[in-house]
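Fig. S4 source data, part A: sequence.
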Amino acid sequence: MGSSLSKRAAVSDTIPTVCGYLGIATAFGVIGRATGFSTITVILMSLIMYAGSAEFTTVSMLAVGSPIGSIIFAAFMVNSRMILMSTTVVPYFKKDSLGKGVLIGTLLTDESFALAMNKINYTNGKMNFTWFNTENIISYAAWVSATMIGAVLGNFIKNPQKLGLDFENVAMFIGLLYLQIKGDKNLNKLLQAIVVLLTLALTYGLTIFLPANLVIIVVTLIGCTLGMVIKRVFF
């Protein structure tokens, strides 16, 4: 990953995300078909929702006949972390039009956000619409394409968990975390290690008491606050 913010740079920078999406979206397609949904329904869900974890949640809730209102609320809660991510991204696009901002926000995902935050470590804190939008579009195309593949394969795979497809998402984020820590030259490595360990401990502890869809938001807020305090007091 270099300092260029061109379209060409965005294409090469997004390759790791695309590779991750090939596994995760394929898994979604397989699981969607195994749950009983038609191939076209599974594909349309990725085309319209494009919301990773919310898609998995929606499929599972529809399969058991949950009320539409409950499904909408659950999908909102699962993806409400995007509010925090969007507020972090906004400052980089203050000079761009509202339409461009909406486009960036519409296609924003955990992976594209993490990749962008890693990118600014190489650009002296700079970001532009061209790079981010190209990254988002490539990621979206990869997700939908991989969902199509998974939906077709789902006709032949009846038990996707036996193949370990549910671990693909975890593996990709471990990789993104490594790249973030390696690329960030401004923060002390010990500080980063402490925050990572605190985040893991908080996630484990809060999972016992809170619904899974709230854990990410609460851990993000607490983790960021503790990280800021530790940095100011000890570093």
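Fig. S4 source data, part B ends here. The chain has twelve helices and no strands.
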